Amino acid sequence: MYQKLMEIYDRMYKHFGPRHWWPADTPFEVVVGAILTQSVAWRNVEQAIRNLKQAGLLDLVAIAQAQLDELARLIRPTRYYNMKAKKLQAFCRHVMENYDGSLERFFARDLWPLREELLGIYGIGEETADSILLYAAEKPIFVVDAYTKRIFSRLGMVDENIKYGQLQRFFMDHIPPDVPLYNEYHAQIDAVGNHYCAAKKPACGECPLRPLCGFTSSA
Predict the structure, then answer these.
(1) Under 8 Å between Cβ of 28 and 136
(2) DSSP classification of residue 1
(3) At what angle do helices 2-16 and 179-195 cross, to 10 degrees?
(4) Which residues contact 22 (CB under 8 A, 6 or more apart)?
(5) Quick one: average pLDDT of 192-205?
(6) Is the pLDDT of residue 197 over 80?
C-alpha cells in the first residue's frame, strides 16, 4: 500500500510541483488561517489576514483582548465572521490563560494530548486541529478533508462514507510519520481536488491520477 500511495503522490507532485503550503509568515498566522478558512475560499482568508495585519491585530494577545465586533468586521470576507471571531478569540484566550500567551509552550506538548486539547477549544474541529498541528506546530499528523475522501474513494481505495478518523488512520498506517511529506501530500491532494476532481463534472481527462482511477469510465 505504501508503494501505491507514493505512486499517487509522485504523479501529483510531477504535475503540480511543490505547493509551498501553508502560506504564512508565522505559526500564529497559520493558526488564524486554519480557523478562518472553514467553509470559504483561501483568497477570502488572505484578505481577512491582510485586514488584521493592517489593523495591528494579527497577534495572539491583540486578538485575545480585541472587541469582538471589531474583530468580526476585519474578518468579514471569510463568511460566518461573527462565529469565526469568537473562535479566534477562544483559541487566543486559551493560550493566554494556560500558557502565558506562548504558542511555543503550547505546541511543545506531545501530538495526541495536544490534539485533544485543541479539540476542546470552542470552534476547533478535527480538520482545523490537524491543520494547526501539521502546519503550525509541525507535528506528524495527516490532514484529511472532503477532497481526500472524494479522490481516494474514486480511486477505489476507501469507502465513500469513511469517517474522518478512519481516513486519517488509513494514511498514517501506511505512510511513516514525516512532517514535510504529510504537508506536501495533503497540499497535492487539495490541488487535484480544486483543479480536477470536482464533486460534479470532474475534469478527469486532465487529471494526473486518471491512469489509476476507475471513476473516469463513468465521468
Answers:
(1) yes
(2) -
(3) 60
(4) 30, 33, 34, 131, 135, 136, 183
(5) 94
(6) yes
CB-based contacts of 44, cutoff 8 Å, min separation 6: 36, 77, 78, 79
**Residue 156: Cβ-neighbour burial (10 angstroms; 0-12, 13-18, 19+):** exposed
Q: How many residues does the chain have?
A: 219
Q: Cell 483559541 belongs to which residue?
A: 91
pTM of the predicted model as reported, rounded to 2 decimal places: 0.95
3-state SS string for 107-169: HCCCHHHHHHHHHCCCCCCHHHHHHHHHHHCCCCCCCCCHHHHHHHHHCCCCCCCCCHHHHHH
Dist CA 117 CA 150 (whole Å): 29
Q: Nearest to residue 187, comparing CAs of 131, 149, 132, 133?
A: 131
Quote the CA–CA distance of 125 and 133 in Å, as a whole number: 12
Poorest-confidence range of 43-52, 78-87, 140-149, 207-216? 207-216
* Residues 80/99, Cβ–Cβ less than 8 Å: no
Write the pLDDT tens digit of every residue in 160-174: 999 999 999 999 999
* Confidence at 217, pLDDT banded by 50, 70, 90: very low
